[in-house]
Specification:
Metallo-beta-lactamase, Chain A, about 210 residues, alpha/beta, single chain, six-stranded mixed β-sheet
Length: about 210
C-alpha cells in the first residue's frame, strides 16, 4: 500500500489516497475541496480504480469534494452515523461559513461502527470511534501497515478543537487515551491537518493529552 498525502481545499485539509498498483485499487480517506484534481492523475499513473471513499468525520473541510469524487469514480462511501446530519444535510454547516463555500449532500453506502473490522487493499482494517472533536469522528487502523488515519482527533503536538457543536474536551481526551494511545507506540498517526506523527511521540510529548 502506498500512502499519498494530499493537502487540499481552503484550509489545506489532508486527504489520503491509498493505492495498491498490483491490485489496481485505491481508497481515498476524506475529500477536501479540489482533491479530485490531485487524485485523478495518480490513479491514472498507477492504473488504479478508486473503489471506496472513507470519511473520518462530517466537517465541511473533509467532505467538500466528496459528492464530486463519487460522481467521477463511483466510489463506495463509508462514514459513522453520528455525523449523519452533517454528511447528508451539510446546510447545517453553511451558517458557520456565511454561504461562501458550496456544500453538497453525500449519500453514505455503509455506516461503520466502533470495533468493526474488514479487509481493504488486502490488509486488515479496524474502525475505532474517537468522538470529542466531532460526534462521528472515527479512525481507520491498518495494523499490518502500522498506520492510523485519525481525522481531527489528534495532531502532531496538538488535538482537535472542541468548541464546535458536538465537541467536548473531556470526551476527546478520553477518546485519545482509550482509542489512539492504546495502539502500538510505533503506529504512524496520519491526521486531518499537518504532518504525520506517531502514537509514542504523542504519548510522551503532546501537551494537551498525556497518556
Amino acid at each position: 500500500m502506498t500512502i499519498h498525502v494530499l493537502p487540499s481545499g481552503p484550509i489545506q485539509t489532508n486527504g489520503y489516497l491509498l493505492t495498491d498498483a498490483a491490485r489496481g485499487e485505491a481508497i481515498l480517506i476524506d475529500a477536501p475541496g479540489d482533491i479530485l484534481d490531485e487524485v485523478q492523475p495518480i490513479l491514472a499513473q498507477e492504473r488504479c480504480k478508486l473503489t471506496q471513499l472513507w470519511i473520518t468525520h462530517g466537517h465541511w473541510d473533509h467532505t467538500q469534494d466528496a459528492a464530486k469524487v463519487v460522481r467521477a469514480t463511483g466510489a463506495r462511501v463509508l462514514a459513522h452515523a453520528a455525523d449523519k446530519t452533517l454528511i447528508e444535510t451539510p446546510q447545517v454547516m453553511s451558517a458557520f461559513l456565511g454561504g461562501a463555500i458550496p456544500l453538497e449532500p453525500l449519500s453514505v453506502d455503509h455506516w461503520v461502527e466502533a470495533g468493526e473490522r474488514f479487509t481493504a487493499l488486502g490488509l486488515d482494517v479496524e474502525v475505532r470511534h474517537v468522538p470529542g472533536h466531532c460526534p462521528g469522528n472515527v479512525l481507520f487502523y491498518f495494523a499490518q501497515a502500522g498506520a492510523a488515519f485519525v481525522g481531527d482527533a489528534l495532531f502532531a503536538g496538538s488535538v482537535g478543537r472542541t468548541d464546535l457543536p458536538g465537541g467536548s474536551r473531556e470526551v476527546l481526551a478520553q477518546s485519545i487515551r482509550t482509542q489512539i494511545y492504546t495502539l502500538p507506540d510505533e503506529t504512524a498517526v496520519y491526521a486531518g491537518h499537518g504532518p504525520a506523527t506517531t502514537v509514542g511521540m504523542e504519548k510522551r510529548s503532546n501537551p494537551f493529552v498525556r497518556a
